[in-house]
Design brief:
The complex is a heterodimer of chains A (483) and B (74). Chain A has 483 residues and is of the alpha/beta class. Chain A contains 14 helices and eleven strands. Chain A has an eleven-stranded mixed β-sheet, with helices on both faces. Chain A starts with 13 loop residues before the first helix and ends in a 22-residue tail after the last helix. In chain B, helix 1 crosses helix 2. Chain B has a domain of 33 residues. Helices cover 54% and strands 0% of the residues of chain B. With 74 residues, chain B is mainly α. Classes of the chains: A alpha/beta (483), B mainly alpha (74). At the A-B interface, helix 9, helix 10 and helix 11 of A face helix 2 and helix 3 of B.
Chain lengths: 483, 74
């Protein structure tokens, strides 16, 4: 048990918890119980989980405790509780993707990424809330069985999505780290809204075997974590070739953690100041971007302003038809047979996919090839891009227009379309105490450089990363939102 | 943007035809109105995709041989 003056283990970073376990001052089974206590205390407010498997988690944590006591730890993730978005299949633990539509997958299917994390000793706690089928357009209609996840920094505010529960869980301490999936920003946007780190690696770097597909061309699993180092640890455990995933890259994985602290001296940073030339970002976002560019300059990087080949909204206009067509193809039978069970956001997305012309889909895929080349050419001139993640901070969940704008005014799509790695990074708070984020993107397979640049900014913005303190909201009445 | 009654009727007829000719039971009532709107939205979304005049550029789909082919990280 914890001492009254000691930090709650659920508030520790993965790195700090791993250090404490290695030092013998924290047992994995106690850490898991602390996470359960946190879930019991706050998840009725933030709705990060759809289901948990405490019995199996306790068995895994006890095994990790025995290894720790015997000096046989498997590595830094051994005994660390984590959770996955509920579109990632887990044997023995149902996957519903937050939908009423009956799912027909093999119940023994177990995602490679989950297996790899468990092989590293991480303890699976449960399945996290998500937009239905892990997809959507940004709108929240309050028409699914699970209530939408809430932002732990302010439970009346939006989490972003679609990995909504993952963002809430990491910020709220109901999981030490979480795994989401990113098709157009679905790891990075909830990370931005919830003030945590969200990494979308290079396309094909993390296996999608055992992940419910949303869009074959873009789907990329990725970690959400409290710190850059935590995200790097989870990434390293998951990354690498998987013969069961036809899109899995065979290239060896460059380790990220050994160079995290080596700084950015001489790194060429391309600053994209505006996502939409016709509309400004919120002041807090502009200020964070300026502070980030100054911090990188001060750390020895060369920063210069550049523009992307086309505006982020134009990338999005090309990405969305691909996303909608492929989603419809994947879920066609569910749509035709069970659309009456679907929420409005999923139904409307699939419905448009049904009517997209093949010529339009192929035109978008041809544009994609051209844009990959043109965007990759940017990385011949600079090493890392610095740009806003979204022009907004997380709005009130009841403000439907602002909720949708959080996604549509974002720069999630460019790097989903091209496959370049990108990370959303906390960059302080606005005047309401809501998290602000910036985004970094790098060349293909450049996760190590990307993450050490992120680490440099983390030292500026979050020298002592912390999870949201939900105590002040524990007794507030639930929101009266009509379902 | 809203559809005129004439346009809506035409879109509904088109949506009905698509469902029928795909061998599915077509939507009715409000579902049909929504289908008409989705059909219009899908076509509008397609119009926003710029066309490439270079006929040699192929669609990019599936595994990323371009990334695999990199000699060293860019």
């Amino acid at each position: 048990m914890t001492h009254a003056h000691a930090p709650d283990p659920a508030d520790l970073s993965v790195g700090a918890a791993a250090h404490a376990i290695a030092a013998g001052t924290l047992r994995p089974d106690d850490l898991l119980e602390a996470v359960f206590e946190r879930i019991d205390a706050v998840d009725g407010r933030i709705h990060s989980y759809l289901r948990q498997d405490r019995e199996h988690a306790r068995v895994a944590a006890q095994a990790a405790t025995r290894r720790a006591l015997d000096g046989q730890r498997l590595g830094p993730l051994d005994g660390i509780p984590f959770a996955v978005k509920d579109n990632i299949y887990t044997a023995g633990l149902p996957t519903t993707a937050a939908s009423r539509v009956p799912q027909r997958h093999d119940p023994h299917l177990h995602a490679t990424l989950v297996q790899r994390l468990q092989d590293a000793g991480a303890v699976l706690v449960g399945k996290l809330n998500t937009w239905e089928y892990g997809t959507g357009t940004g709108a929240v209609h309050f028409d699914l069985d699970p209530p939408p996840a809430r932002n732990p920094w302010h439970p009346e505010h939006y989490t972003g999505g679609s990995s909504s529960g993952a963002g809430a869980a990491v910020a709220g301490g109901t999981a030490m780290f979480a795994i989401g999936t990113d098709t157009g920003g679905s790891v990075r946007l909830p990370a931005a809204a919830c003030g945590v780190v969200g990494l979308k690696p290079t396309f094909g770097r993390i296996s999608r075997h055992g992940v419910m597909p949303n869009c074959w061309s873009f789907d990329t699993p990725g970690p959400l974590a409290l710190t850059v180092a935590d995200a790097a640890l989870a990434y390293e455990a998951m990354a690498g070739h998987d013969p069961q995933d036809p899109s899995s890259l065979q290239r060896p994985v460059e380790p990220v953690t050994p160079t995290l602290e080596t700084g950015v001296r001489g790194v060429r940073i391309g600053l994209v100041r505006r996502l939409d030339p016709s509309a400004g970002a919120e002041p807090a976002v502009d200020q964070a971007l300026e502070r980030a560019s100054q911090a990188l300059r001060a750390a020895g990087a060369e920063v210069r302003e550049i523009t992307l080949p086309i505006a982020p909204a134009e990338y999005r206009a090309i990405a969305m038809p691909i996303n909608r067509c492929e989603s419809y193809s994947i879920h066609e039978r569910d749509y035709l047979d069970h659309r009456h069970l679907m929420g409005r956001a999923l139904r409307e997305k699939l419905e448009i996919g049904m009517y997209m012309r093949a010529a339009d889909y192929l035109a978008a895929l041809r544009q994609r090839r051209d844009l990959v080349d043109r965007t990759d050419a940017v990385f011949a001139e600079i090493d890392v891009l610095l740009l806003p993640m979204t022009d907004r901070v997380a709005p009130d969940l009841r403000d439907a227009e602002s909720v949708t704008n959080f996604t549509t005014c974002s720069a999630g799509s460019p790097f989903s379309l091209t496959g370049h790695p990108a990370v959303s990074l906390p960059a302080g708070f606005d005047s309401q105490g809501l998290p602000v984020a910036v985004q970094l993107a790098g060349g293909f397979l450049q996760e190590a450089l990307l993450m050490r640049t992120a680490r440099t900014l983390e030292r500026e913005f979050s020298p002592h990363p912390r999870r949201a303190g939900l105590a002040g909201y524990a007794s507030t009445p639930d929101l009266a939102i009509a379902r | 943007m809203t559809s005129s009654p004439t346009e809506l009727t035409a879109l509904q007829a088109a949506a009905l035809t698509i469902w029928r000719e795909c061998g599915e039971r077509p939507p009715t009532g409000e579902d049909l109105t929504r289908a008409a709107s989705a059909l219009r939205g899908a076509l509008a979304s397609g119009r926003q995709i710029p066309r490439l005049l270079d006929k040699t550029i192929q669609p990019m789909s599936g595994p990323r041989s371009d990334i695999e082919a990199l000699e060293t990280p860019t």
